Automatic annotation (TrEMBL):
Gene name as annotated: LOC121468055
Catalysed reactions, semicolon-separated: NAD(+) + ATP = ADP + NADP(+) + H(+)
Any GO molecular function: metal ion binding
UniProt-recorded name of the protein: NAD kinase
HAMAP family given in the database record: NAD_kinase
């Protein structure tokens, strides 16, 4: 079976990421078009290897599970296509960066006037004096649709996303969509740019290719995180003084549980916060205690996040097409505690150890930082809503070029060769 024959359509399933096959009714109208595009990129085998045979010898076989978690595609077959021509685009610009003002204006003029697109922009972007006081930009600005983070839901109104900035803009775009994410085109206008493969110099032709559905995609898996906290209501005695005249401390009363959910692109970081003590957290995998982390903390990352904080903490770097979750300790109190990679789809659970001296703190892609106390828990698994990132060339070439350009991977001085002595005659 050729993996290239799978159409790129992720179905939201509780069990995981499932790719629908070309025969499905919703995609049948686009099958012929997809096959024409895929024919130039079809391989004789997948980069991940062929589908494993599930019969072993004359009588043994593996029990079939009807709840399939995911089908792995050949990265070369992952191409963008549209069910209908895109009409709306979300433009995300890095805030407080004067160097992005001109590219932002040029892009918005191109999208609105030459492509007749509906442009969504965050309200605080337009509050920049350089944009608000620009009279020449006024007619374009009036066509914008604006929104506010955490107030307005635009998840069903955006066809694709364009990011102007660094890797942080892509992480921010991911946080805006807690469900299905539109395709993301990221321009490198920031400091690092590991996740932003496009240069802005020829943005017109590149944006046109995306609108026409001529682009490669890389599926960046995300983590579905659920934080369950013991809800404590603080109550104080009137005037803070008891009947005997002794000052009363605040009282905590458990009145239920508070549940928060997040979609994380890079990593979940649990650390010791401002405490001088080591963090002491228990890590469970599918309900089984696998280890206790004593140290500065632990990083649970996606393959995309493996090249971020996890790499700085000594972890391996994983290609975003590899279905995996990485667990990396931060300065562990054990020399044998090395980073490990576990299969995508497993459920990790992190809790404070019963004998922990202090609380812990958790953050999600560097945001929403909060304290974790005894009785609280953090559940992490692979999300069925990946982030489809548009490639400049293809998933493999873009990734290795980022390793070379941004991280200077394996850059060293070359070893001198031996001098060839002339043969004596």
């Amino acid at each position: 079976m050729h993996f290239a024959l799978y159409c790129f359509c992720a179905a939201a399933s509780k069990e995981g990421l499932v790719f629908e096959q070309p025969g499905s009714p919703s995609l049948s109208a686009h099958l012929s078009h997809s096959l024409i595009i895929f024919s130039a990129f079809r391989r004789t085998r997948s980069l991940h290897g062929p589908c494993p045979v599930t019969t072993f010898g004359p009588k043994a076989c593996m029990l079939q599970n009807p709840k399939t978690i995911m089908h792995i595609q050949d990265p070369a077959s992952q191409r963008l296509t549209w069910n209908k021509p895109p009409k709306s685009v979300l433009v995300i610009k890095k805030i407080r960066d004067a160097s992005l003002l001109q590219p932002f204006k040029e892009l918005c003029v191109y999208l609105t006037e030459e492509n007749n697109m509906i442009v969504y922009v965050e309200k605080k972007v337009l509050e920049d004096p350089a944009i608000a006081n620009d009279e020449n930009f006024g007619p374009v600005k009036k066509k914008f649709c604006t929104f506010r983070e955490d107030y307005d839901d635009i998840s069903n109104q955006i066809d694709f996303i364009i990011c102007l900035g660094g890797d942080g803009t892509l992480l921010y775009a991911s946080s805006l969509f807690q469900g299905s994410v539109p395709p993301v085109m990221a321009f490198h206008l920031g400091s690092l740019g590991f996740l932003t493969p496009f240069n802005f110099e020829n943005f017109q032709s590149q944006v046109t290719q995306v609108i026409e559905g001529n682009a490669a995609l890389v599926l960046r898996s995300r983590l579905k995180v659920k934080v369950v906290k013991e809800h404590r209501e603080k109550t104080t005695v009137q005037n803070g003084i008891e009947e005997n005249g002794v000052v009363s401390a605040n009282l905590e009363k458990e009145v239920g549980k508070q549940i928060m959910q997040y979609q994380v692109l890079n990593e979940v970081v649990v650390d010791r916060g401002p405490s001088s003590y080591l963090s002491n957290v228990d890590v469970f995998l599918d309900g089984h205690l696998i280890t206790t982390v004593q140290g500065d903390g632990v990083i649970v990352s996606t393959p995309t996040g493996s090249t971020a904080y996890a790499a700085a903490a000594g972890a391996s770097m994983i290609h975003p097409n590899v279905p995996a979750i990485m667990i990396t300790p931060i300065c562990p109190h054990s020399l044998s505690f090395r980073p490990i990679v576990v299969p995508a789809g497993v459920e990790l659970k992190i809790m404070l150890s019963p004998d922990a001296r202090n609380t812990a703190w958790v953050s999600f892609d560097g945001r929403k930082r909060q304290e974790i106390c005894h009785g609280d828990s953090i559940s992490i698994t692979t999300s069925c809503y990946p982030l489809p990132s548009i490639c400049f060339r293809d998933p493999v070439s873009d990734w290795f070029e980022s390793l070379a350009e941004c991280l200077h991977w394996n850059v060293r001085k070359k070893q001198n060769n031996f001098a060839v002595e002339e043969e004596e005659f």
